[in-house]
Amino acid sequence: MNALARSVAPAQSLRLDIDDVSHEFDFGKSRLAVLSNISITIEPGEFVALLGPSGCGKSTLLRLAAGLEAPTRGAVLEDGRAITRPDPSRILVFQDATLFPWLTVWKNVATGLDARGILKDQEHRVDDILKLVKLDAFGDAYPHQLSGGMAQRVAIARALINDPKLLLLDEPFGKLDSLTRLKMQKELLQLWQRSGFTALLVTHDVEEALLLADRVIVFGDRPASIIADITVDKPHPRRRDDNALVALRQGLLEKLGVSHDV
Question: Is the pTM of this model over 0.85?
Answer without folding.
Answer: yes
